[in-house]
Each structure stands twice: as structure tokens, then as C-alpha cells.
């Protein structure tokens, strides 16, 4: 009999695969909150060098790509996480179960199960703190069903069926089922018994009901030994405690602590989401800000150079450089340039500005916009982020290493954060 190698004493415990960037950060924040030192990797690392952390989260961009590609990328991430010594694995997707009719939640979950040699996993997108609950297999967003929440009109992943057992069944080639609320409310052992019954019936993937953090903690305890968990970030709430009970994790008071990063700061906004608009407007009331005009960029005008000059002219203050526009203005620019070209021009300009400012000594970046954040992080040459304390729910300060050394990065997807997010973020990392 071959002996299973014992993971190294300081090896990471939990290995996570997230199907998008901001979702990865959200999960990482949840784990840090539970006292796990967490590092987010941007794509599957090419180096097998060990990463010092309690939890690792590989951020893919696999939500809407063809299922076969999502499977291949997820398996590559799993192989890397296994090589790091992780003991348990987690597949993270959106709490609104964002997926297409072809997948990718079911196919990726199945492929990960096969690779881990397990024939049962739960799927639980519930995140009650954000209003996402699952009852009798139906997903609610606030007080309404998923298909009445606006998600039915999502451009890439329209969710028209609130019964996610059915949605998962349509995506999967194995039998799916429901781990009912009744068992979960009755506690850890009844939950395990109900799962064993489903498994005996041939169910391989089970949607788990959950309407509260207590339900998620019960699920976490019941599946402490499961090789694979799948869900939103909410399901991870109970996992740090499992590792602590097993004597594998300390109290974790320092998990969110990042070294202070000095140097100048800048705020870059490429998001026109409602929250970003309010944040830009709030900043402009009292701080220096310069707008980047996509039409001027398209005409080849020196917009980047003007932004850098503006930055130099305000040596004693932090500046905001933004492309954020009101919906009518955005629509007009997109009609003229095309949505994709407009987006690329703005992302390219903000990325070029970030790269140049890092060379000029800027070490703290507050960035608004999911895609914009991806472009900036790439331009800065950052491939991994240590996750710190939250600025607002779901948006932590992070520490990245670029060619110039430590960089503090606050990366905010469109609708996150309060109106004074930029100011508060800077006050926390100064
Ligand atoms: P969010 O997180 O709010 O969706 P993203 O950064 O993901 O923000 O996406 C916003 C997209 O809109 C980016 O591709 C960005 O380059 C583009 N964009 C930003 N400002 C403008 C503008 N004024 N006109 C056209 N496109 C813009």
C-alpha cells in the first residue's frame, strides 16, 4: 500500500478556484475574516515555488468561456493547488449562480470531483449577508426570486430559472439533487445523514439550502472532511473554524495585517457603475480630479501625457484620474466608437498611466472597475495579492509585488463601496 504523503507542516490548508477576479477577492476576504492568511493568485502561477499562506485562491476568468476551456483551466489550478499541499478544495462561483445554459458550474464541479476521486459535492451559492438565500432549491435575491432580480436580463449570464437544482441538472451529466433545509436546520449529523441518503440514491451534485450564516456554518461543519466544496463566498464562513478545531490553524488575529506601504497614491476610475459615479462626484467636490476623454484618446490626442502632467502639478495631494461618465454620455461614446473599442481605449490609457506612475514612485493605487482593475494589475506586473482588512464589505486592501517592490492595491468592482470609498481607502493605508 502506498502511503499518502503528509502535507508540509506549514503548507496551505485550503485551495480555492474562483471563476472571476472580484469573486476571488470576495472569497479571500471571507477567509481572512475567519483568521486565515490568504493569497490570491492571478491566473494559475507558472512557478511551483511554495506560497506562504493558510488559504490560496486562484482567480480565473472562466465564468463565461466555453465549458471545455473552463474545465481545463480549473484542472490546471487544482493541480497547482495540490502541489502546494492544500488539503481541501473549494470551487467559488457567483452568489447569483451566474452561468450559461452550457455551464460552467456543473461541468467544472464534475471535472474537479473526478480529479479529486470523490463522487459527491454540495453546491451552495447562498450569501445571506448579501441577501442571497436558497430555500427548497430556489435562489432568492433579497425578497425576490433570482429570475425577478434583474439577473434575468444579464447580458452574459441571464438567469431565467430560479430553481437552481434544475439549472445545475441542465448543465451536468450526473444526477443532481437537493440537500433540504429541514436536514440543515436539524444540525450537522442530520445534514450528513441526508447527504449520505442522496449519495446512496445516486445523486452526485446536491444544491444545499441555506438562509442564514448558521446554516452555512452547519454545512461547513458537516462537510469538514469533504475533498471539494462548491459555492459562493458565504459557504466558506465555517471553514476556518474546521481547521482550527483540527489543530491546523491558530487564532489568526494577524491574518488581515499588511505592512504599511509608503509612497505617493493615486485613484484611477474606469467604471461608470452607479456607485463609482457617486464616488467620483464626491471626490471632485474637494480634491483634484481629471477626466480622460475616450473620444480624445480615439483621436490620438496626448491624454495619458496630460494626466501625468496633472499628477505632477499636484505633488502635495492625491489625484483622481477618471473616465467615469453618466449613462447618456457613455452611450454616446459607445455608439460612436463601439463598446469594445471604447473600453479598450480607456483600459489601455489607465493601465499605461498606472505603469508610468509606479515608475515615478506611486505605491498605493485605488482602482474602480472590475475590468479596469484587471488591466491595471497586469500593467503593474502583479501576479499575486495578499489580502488585508476590508475597506468596505468585499473590498479589502491588498498587497502586491511589482518590479518596483511592494504595492498597496484597493481594487473595487463597479457597484461596491460607499460614497467616500476613495478617501476612506487612502486613510486606511497611509
Ligand atoms: P465595472 O466594475 O463598473 O463594470 P469595469 O472596469 O469592469 O467597471 O468596466 C467598465 C468598462 O467601461 C471598461 O472597459 C472601461 O474601459 C469602459 N469605460 C470606462 N469609461 C468609459 C467611457 N467614458 N466611455 C466608454 N467606455 C468607458
TrEMBL record:
Q: What class of enzyme is it?
A: transferase
Stretches assigned to the Four-carbon acid sugar kinase nucleotide binding domain:
266-422
Q: Which domain of life is it from?
A: Bacteria
Please list the GO terms describing molecular function.
ATP binding; kinase activity
Alphabetic keyword roster: ATP-binding, Carbohydrate metabolism, Kinase, Nucleotide-binding, Transferase
The residue ranges of the Four-carbon acid sugar kinase N-terminal domain are 14-238
In terms of SUPFAM superfamilies, this protein maps to: YgbK-like (SSF142764)
EC number of this enzyme: 2.7.1.217
Membrane-spanning regions, if any?
Answer: none
Task: Describe the reaction catalysed, as an equation.
Answer: 3-dehydro-D-erythronate + ATP = 3-dehydro-4-O-phospho-D-erythronate + ADP + H(+); 3-dehydro-L-erythronate + ATP = 3-dehydro-4-O-phospho-L-erythronate + ADP + H(+)
Family to which this protein belongs: Belongs to the four-carbon acid sugar kinase family.
Q: What does this protein do?
A: Catalyzes the ATP-dependent phosphorylation of 3-oxo-tetronate to 3-oxo-tetronate 4-phosphate.
Protein's name in the database: 3-oxo-tetronate kinase
Q: Which organism is it from?
A: Paraburkholderia acidisoli
Please name the taxonomic classification of the source.
Bacteria, Pseudomonadati, Pseudomonadota, Betaproteobacteria, Burkholderiales
Amino acid at each position: 500500500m502506498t502511503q499518502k504523503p503528509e502535507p508540509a507542516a506549514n503548507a496551505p490548508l485550503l485551495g480555492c478556484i474562483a471563476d472571476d477576479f472580484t469573486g476571488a477577492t470576495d472569497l479571500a476576504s471571507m477567509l481572512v475574516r475567519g483568521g486565515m492568511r490568504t493569497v490570491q493568485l492571478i491566473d494559475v502561477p507558472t512557478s511551483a515555488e511554495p506560497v506562504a499562506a493558510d488559504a490560496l485562491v486562484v482567480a480565473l476568468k472562466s465564468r463565461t468561456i466555453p465549458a471545455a476551456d473552463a474545465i481545463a483551466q480549473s484542472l490546471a489550478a487544482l493541480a497547482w493547488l495540490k502541489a502546494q499541499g492544500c488539503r481541501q478544495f473549494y470551487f467559488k462561483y457567483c452568489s447569483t449562480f451566474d452561468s450559461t445554459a452550457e455551464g460552467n458550474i456543473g461541468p467544472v464541479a464534475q471535472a474537479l470531483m473526478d480529479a479529486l476521486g470523490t463522487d459527491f459535492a454540495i453546491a451552495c451559492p447562498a450569501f445571506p449577508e448579501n441577501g442571497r438565500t436558497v430555500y427548497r432549491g430556489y435562489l432568492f435575491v433579497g425578497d425576490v426570486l433570482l429570475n425577478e432580480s434583474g439577473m434575468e436580463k444579464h447580458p452574459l449570464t441571464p438567469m431565467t430559472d430560479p430553481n437552481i437544482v434544475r439549472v445545475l441538472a441542465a448543465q451536468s451529466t450526473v444526477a443532481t439533487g437537493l440537500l433540504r433545509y429541514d436536514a440543515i436546520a436539524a444540525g450537522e449529523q442530520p445534514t450528513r445523514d441526508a447527504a449520505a441518503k442522496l449519495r446512496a440514491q445516486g445523486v452526485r451534485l446536491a444544491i444545499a439550502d441555506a438562509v442564514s450564516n448558521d446554516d452555512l456554518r452547519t454545512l461547513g461543519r458537516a462537510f469538514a472532511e469533504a475533498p471539494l466544496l462548491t459555492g459562493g463566498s458565504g459557504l466558506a464562513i465555517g471553514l476556518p473554524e474546521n481547521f482550527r478545531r483540527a489543530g491546523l490553524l491558530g487564532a489568526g488575529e494577524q491574518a488581515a495585517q499588511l505592512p504599511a506601504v509608503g509612497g505617493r497614491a493615486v485613484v484611477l476610475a474606469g467604471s461608470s457603475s452607479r456607485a463609482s459615479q457617486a464616488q467620483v462626484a464626491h471626490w471632485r467636490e474637494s480634491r483634484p480630479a481629471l477626466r480622460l476623454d475616450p473620444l480624445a484618446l480615439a483621436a490620438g490626442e496626448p491624454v495619458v501625457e496630460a494626466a501625468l502632467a496633472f499628477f505632477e502639478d499636484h505633488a502635495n495631494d492625491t489625484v483622481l484620474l477618471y473616465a467615469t461618465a453618466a449613462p447618456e454620455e457613455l452611450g454616446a461614446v459607445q455608439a460612436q466608437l463601439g463598446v469594445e473599442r471604447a473600453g479598450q481605449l480607456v483600459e489601455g490609457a489607465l493601465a499605461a498611466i498606472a505603469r508610468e506612475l509606479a515608475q515615478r514612485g506611486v505605491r498605493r493605487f485605488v482602482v474602480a472597475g472590475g475590468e479596469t482593475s484587471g488591466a491595471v494589475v497586469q500593467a503593474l506586473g502583479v501576479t499575486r495579492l495578499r489580502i488585508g482588512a476590508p475597506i468596505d464589505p468585499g473590498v479589502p486592501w491588498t498587497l502586491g509585488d511589482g518590479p518596483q517592490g511592494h504595492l498597496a492595491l484597493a481594487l473595487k468592482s463597479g457597484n461596491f463601496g460607499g460614497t467616500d470609498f476613495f478617501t476612506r481607502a487612502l486613510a486606511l493605508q497611509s
